[in-house]
Design a protein that fits this description.
heterodimer; A: about 1150 residues; alpha+beta; FAD/NAD(P)-binding domain; 63 strands; about 30% strand; elongated; B: about 120 residues; Folate-binding fold; four-stranded antiparallel sheet; two-stranded antiparallel sheet; globular; binds zinc ion
């Protein structure tokens, strides 16, 4: 008779039936079932096929270690393969499918492998597929891939949401069996913050599956009251369906919470748990016994069979055999006998302890016997028992077979930090290593197998963890306990049954048999790490959770050594498989990384820009018009417009750094190659920054705004690197210099107006004399617009034309850019993008990071004059003097033009002497930048050429084998376009001034509020002026006090820096006056560089935990706490404004991305 | 997956908030120091197994440069100090106008450079 369901009992809810399907057949189970228990209740014991031999397989261990019953859940894009049926909570409409069979589970063609098994032994991959090598790609590999049948992914994008969260606690308890529950109770009663995780859907572990008595109640009753107490404690977080999969540095643990079937929210959630102490109470796995046919469906561990009978009321037929080496088999016999089944108990021990016999009274007990073979087809139908004293065989018909081979403590997480488990010969178990980094094992994970011992050990571990952290746990009395076999625990070690005739499996998932391991030892692979690779034992999804210890035992036996001499394989995360989707969280697709948008992003969008990713930025590539089929036509038009008239483009993405302090000039001399201290106020200078090894790091401009006040610009590409470098110089190299560096990239919308008519256009906008004398080349001035708006104007050119950069506060950018467009209308002003910008600069031989590629010196770039010989010291000076960096035959910047203007040159091509063979030795250099110049009607390029400056006029071959292009090109000066149309300025006519409209918030921010039923609400706070207050070392108190005068809150950034926020609607000047900063402090306006959000509601802290690893219940628990932190990948200043309310000061260029990210997390709540 | 660093200014944060630079012990030589001293400062690093002082920046937080004393083998973090404090504390820590590089260090570096050159 097959498996079925008892008519009563179990923890299932028989009033609520659940419909599901398995391999297309409809079934019904009950709420409280797992997929495995529901299938067994329906008589389905065949759940999968094995990996190599395609043998029929059923449920084996029934837990996280389950190697056989692997299924695919779901269809369509959410299908998830390789799930253990024992870990899948049954839910209505669940669609499950078996794996690794074709065409069906019952009739599987691959099972022919079983007949071929003599050829498929250990190492068959290495032996069979050796020769001929050519067949690997065409035959063997595709064949192996097809045969290697675990589940299939859907190959469609996963539509589900995933989330990651941080949580912090004093004590993390892993596992909620008797030890875990007691640990959590002890620690939480002492006042500690506790997180309790269990990978099953219900808490309690074996207390739900074994018939025991604790303090007068049964297991489930004890669990219910313990969980009720823990749930009522606000300092305790209970996480069920949550597997702790890794123990990492500094007490951080990774866990995955499966929320399948939950009506809303993420499908899975990754928890990063920062725990000061951890109690590993993960229990122990029952060891399967190794005999012939031990893999037949219907053969399972004794604890699995007992648990299914007690918790899910599964009846394993009428007559069950139990093969035992210890008390667990007798306990299973006891529970099945109580249900009226007939039990034959085959006990390998000749002397069975009296308490074990007392428990299994009523069973037929065969002492000193072993099961040599289990017989049957797709299910077990009988056993062959052997009396080891006489050798007599007996065949017994059975419906199912339970195996109790002893226990393997689940030590994995105790070993993730590099330690190895310790072999204990006395008990025959590998025990966890000594506690490390605050993690200690308790209960059966520590090798304590009796219930009373587990409870006591858990309570002690919980109390110890609390004590370590300064809590004072109360001494609690251990509850009275009654359990099977009087709590006897010892078992006999029996690695395998030598009398077996059939295949005796050690690793069920990989079909590794006793014979395979023997072969591995004979062929010299007796070390466990070698045997693993040779036989594949311990690989695949279960990573040998059930099999490794037995495999070690058998290897040891074969080699005649003790198991500790064989060693263990290395334990690494992940404890169980975790889907990539869960690990990626929200960072996928368009949100793979944060997107940074310029203050002129919306402006460019409105004018039809096509955007291109440039680092984190989205930059306008070109502004196509009707009739322009590709970007090239738009680029040509934009380029021509700049040189012949005027163009407007966005330079806001350049890195902008505000530098102030009494030592600012001295500092600049140390980080730039040229002498910046001689720069006059109101002037800008081009500068080069080197790395300490003498190579160019970045270029940009320095503008002196005041005696001790500079604005530094960097390239877009190296903005982050340059800022971190200067901070390093200021803080770590020369801390005695009083300088204050602030990134103001987000503060300013920087608008380039370039072309001969640029002055005429800007005259309509800027209320200042823009003439050659008042505003000469490289002038840098504070100006006012006709509207009165304060702005900065720079006469800087990256196009070689008359050009200006106008900087206005970011929120004004769009309106000012529109005003400039209007003002430029009579001059035919044209918006231009990155492509045109690139052509304009190549034509003039201006460099970017295509040329500054980490290998070039100032001299290589033709900028040797920018290295001041008079200066004392600067970063890179000493190493720049190296012989190798001064050699004459270095690669030098040149310009290239094809001999035939219609021929192409592409960046990346290499330069060769005409007719020279393309070899490394003949390599003369490479093309760094190339484009079509509409002015020269030719392709042009910049290149780094060996001795390039001496070779102007030479003809070389540009060799580009990747794209199959070979072009003859003439070497020349990098300035390819000597004089454009510059100077051809039109006669200025008197046009009236244009005043920008009042700025309005970008559409995406307008009225932004996201609300999840009042549980959490994200809202934009009204604009208010913001200053960064900075002071010298030691003036932190003055800085904070000054900043606090803004709105009463202290928002410290770093020692000597704090943010001051004014009242909503207040003017910057009013705030400045109210702050009344002392002269030694500096104020940097960040009003437009920050956007303020409010996050409020009881779930606000939970939403923040999806973004930041800051501990909101530690130092941040009190209102008024404020600190800079990272939200996802975006920096913010977080301030707690109340128990359930937070202020987030975000960088304005990231604000939209951040708001979208927060909104997504909030939507997952509702 | 994760680990934590305690910033002396901001408190305990995940390491994702920080950016590593490398060994914090080399002291920038003075201009005019022997070439070998510069070579050692820029190029020569020991591959330490065990305790080491490194420069990290709290780039996702206060943006201060820190000196993190940690064990490269066990990953245990022993101490974190502000880099400015560390620099001031380094014996003979040179400023732009301070003493020349310590002779012992330069000599050691010269030996190291020579040794490697021959290797
Ligand atoms: Zn910090």
């Amino acid at each position: 008779m097959s498996f079925s369901r008892f008519s009563d009992g179990g923890l299932i809810d028989r009033t609520r039936s659940v419909r599901f399907s398995f391999d297309g057949r409809a079934f019904e189970g009950f709420e409280g079932d797992t997929l495995a228990s529901a299938l067994l209740a329906n008589g389905v014991t065949l759940m999968g096929r094995s990996f190599k031999y395609h043998r029929p397989r059923g449920l084996l261990s029934g837990g996280a270690s389950e190697p056989n019953a692997l299924v695919t859940i779901g269809d369509g894009p959410t299908r998830e393969p390789n799930l253990r049926a024992s870990m899948v909570t049954l839910r209505d409409g669940l669609v499950a499918e078996s794996q690794n069979r074709w065409p069906s589970l019952g009739f599987d063609v691959g099972a022919v492998n079983s007949a071929l098994s003599p050829f498929l032994g250990a190492g068959f991959y290495y032996k069979t597929f050796m020769w001929p090598a050519g067949l690997w790609e065409t035959l063997y590999e595709p064949l192996i891939r097809k045969a290697a049948g675990l589940g299939r992914a859907s190959h469609a994008p996963d539509p589900q949401d995933y989330e990651k969260r941080w949580t912090h606690c004093d004590v993390l308890v892993i596992g909620s069996g008797p030890a875990g529950l007691m640990a959590a109770l002890a620690a939480s009663r002492a006042g500690a913050r506790v997180v309790l995780c269990d990978e099953n859907s219900g808490f309690g572990g074996r207390l739900l599956r074994d018939r025991v008595e604790i303090g007068g109640s049964d297991g489930p009753g004890f669990v219910a009251s313990a969980i009720a107490e823990l749930a009522g404690n606000p300092k305790v977080r209970l996480l069920s369906n949550t597997t702790v999969f890794g123990a990492y540095d500094s007490g951080v643990f990774g866990a995955v919470e499966r929320r399948d079937g939950a009506g809303s929210g993420p499908a899975q959630r990754i928890w990063r748990i920062a725990a000061k102490r951890a109690v590993l109470a993960a229990g122990a796995e029952e060891r399967p016994l190794v005999f012939g046919g031990n893999d037949r469906p219907g053969v399972m561990t004794a604890s699995a069979m007992r648990g299914l009978a007690n918790a899910a009321a599964i009846r394993p037929g009428n007559h069950v055999a139990v093969f035992a080496t210890g008390p667990s088999g007798h306990e299973t016999a006891r529970d099945l006998l109580a249900r009226g089944l007939a039990v034959t108990l085959v006990d390998a021990r000749a002397d069975v302890p009296a308490p074990d016999l007392a428990a299994s009274e009523g069973a037929r007990v065969l002492k000193g016997h072993v099961v040599a073979d289990a017989t049957g087809g797709k299910a077990v139908s009988g056993i062959e028992a052997i009396d080891r004293a006489t050798g007599k065989r007996e065949t017994i018909k059975v419906d199912a077979l339970a195996m109790a081979g002893g226990w393997n403590p689940v030590v994995h997480l105790a070993c993730h930090r590099g330690d190895r488990p310790v072999w204990d010969a006395q008990s025959g178990m590998f025990l966890p290593p000594a506690p490390r980094d605050g993690l200690a094992a308790a209960g059966s994970a520590a090798g304590i197998l009796d219930l009373a011992g587990c409870l006591a050990s858990g309570a002690e571990a919980g109390a110890q963890a609390a004590t370590d952290l300064g809590f004072r746990p109360r001494k609690a009395d251990a509850p009275a306990v009654r359990e099977a076999c009087g709590g006897s625990t010892g078992f006999m070690t029996l690695w395998h049954v030598a009398e077996a005739r059939g295949k005796a499996f050690v690793d069920f998932q990989n079909d590794v048999t006793v014979k395979d391991l023997g072969l591995a030892v004979r062929e010299g692979y007796g070390h466990v790490e070698l045997a693993k690779r040779y036989t594949t034992t311990g690989m695949a999804t279960d990573q040998g959770k059930l099999s490794n210890v037995t495999a070690i035992g058998i290897l040891a036996e074969n080699r005649g050594v003790t198991p500790d001499r064989v060693g263990t394989t290395t334990f690494r995360p992940f404890y169980t498989p975790v889907s990539i989707g869960a690990l990626a969280g929200e960072h996928r697709g368009a949100h793979y990384r944060p997107v940074r948008r310029s203050p002129l992003h919306h402006w460019a969008e409105r004018h039809g820009a096509v955007f291109i990713e440039a680092g984190a930025w989205m930059r306008a590539s070109h502004f196509p018009r009707e009739g322009e089929p590709t970007w090239k036509e738009a680029c040509d038009r934009e380029t021509l417009a700049v040189r012949s008239g005027v163009g407007i483009s966005d330079a806001s993405t350049l890195g902008k750094i505000d530098l102030s302090g009494p030592d600012a000039a001295r500092f600049l001399d140390l980080v730039y190659t040229s002498k910046m201290s001689t720069l006059a106020v109101g002037k800008a200078r081009y500068g080069l920054m080197l790395r300490e090894d003498g190579l160019v790091m970045d270029d940009g401009t320095v503008s002196r705004l005041g005696d001790d006040h500079y604005l530094i610009t960097t390239t877009t590409a190296a903005a982050g690197e340059a800022m971190a470098h200067m901070e390093f110089c200021a803080q770590a190299l020369w801390p005695e210099l009083d300088v204050r560096l602030t990134s103001v990239t987000d503060q300013w919308a920087q608008i380039t107006v370039a072309g001969p008519a640029s002055r005429d256009v800007l005259a309509r906008i800027v209320d200042a004399d823009l003439g050659e004398e008042a505003m000469p080349f490289m002038a840098a001035r504070a100006v006012r617009l006709h509207s009165g708006l304060a702005a900065r104007l720079f006469r800087i050119s990256f196009s070689g034309e008359l050009a200006f950069e106008l900087a206005v506060p970011a929120r004004q950018g769009e309106a000012v850019a529109d005003a400039i467009l209007e003002a430029g209308q009579p001059f035919g002003i044209t918006p231009y993008g990155l492509e045109a910008l690139n052509v304009l600069r190549i034509e003039k031989g201006f460099i970017t990071h295509a040329e500054i590629d980490g290998r070039t010196t100032p001299g290589d770039l033709g900028l040797g004059k920018m290295v001041s010989a008079k200066k004392d010291d600067f970063i890179g000076r000493a190493m720049l003097g190296r012989e190798g960096l001064q050699r004459a035959d270095r690669l030098q910047l040149v310009g290239l033009r094809p001999v035939n203007p219609a021929h192409r040159i592409l960046a990346g091509g290499h330069l060769l002497e005409p007719d020279a063979a393309p070899t490394m030795a003949n390599d003369q250099g490479h093309v760094t930048s190339a484009c079509w110049s509409p002015h020269l009607r030719s392709t042009i390029a910049l290149a780094m050429l060996r001795r390039g400056r001496d070779r102007h006029g030479e003809i070389l071959t540009v060799w580009d084998p990747l794209r199959g292009v070979e072009t003859r090109a003439i070497v020349g000066d990098p300035v390819l376009l000597s004089s454009g149309d510059a100077g051809k300025a039109r006669p200025a006519r008197d046009y009236p001034p244009v005043t920008p409209a009042a700025p309005r918030a970008a559409d995406w921010l307008d009225g932004l509020t996201v609300d999840a039923d009042g549980r959490v609400r994200l809202a934009l706070l009204p604009e208010a002026p913001v200053y960064l207050v900075s002071g010298p070392t030691g003036k932190d108190a003055a800085v904070r006090k000054t900043a606090q005068a803004g709105d009463g809150a202290i928002r410290p950034v770093q020692p000597g820096q704090a943010l001051a926020v004014g009242q909503a609607g207040e003017s910057l000047t009013d705030l400045q006056q109210r702050l009344g900063a002392a002269a030694e402090l500096s104020l940097c306006d960040l009003s437009d560089a920050r956007v303020r959000f409010a996050l409020t509601g009881p779930e606000a802290a939970g939403i923040i935990a999806t973004q930041s690893g800051i501990d909101l219940e530690g130092a941040f628990a009190t209102s008024g706490a404020s600190a800079p932190t990272l939200f996802g990948h975006v920096p913010v200043q977080l301030t707690r404004t109340g128990q359930d309310s937070f202020e987030i000061l975000a960088f304005s260029t990231y604000a939209r991305d951040l708001a979208e990210s927060l909104a997504r997390s909030i939507r997952l709540l509702s | 997956m994760a680990s934590l660093i305690t910033c002396p200014h901001c408190g305990t944060r995940p390491k994702e908030e920080f950016t590593i630079r490398g060994d914090a012990s080399p002291v920038r030589p003075q201009l005019g120091a022997a070439f070998a001293a510069w070579d050692a400062y820029v190029h020569l690093r020991d591959n330490v197994r065990g305790p080491m002082k490194e420069h990290w920046q709290h780039s996702g937080g206060c943006r201060r440069w820190l000196v993190v004393e940690r064990d490269t083998f066990s990953h245990a973090v022993h101490a974190v100090t502000d880099a400015a404090e560390f620099a001031r504390g380094q014996a003979g820590g040179p400023g732009p106008a301070a003493k020349p590089a310590r002779p012992a260090r330069a000599a050691k570096a010269a030996t190291a450079a020579k040794g490697r050159g021959q290797a």
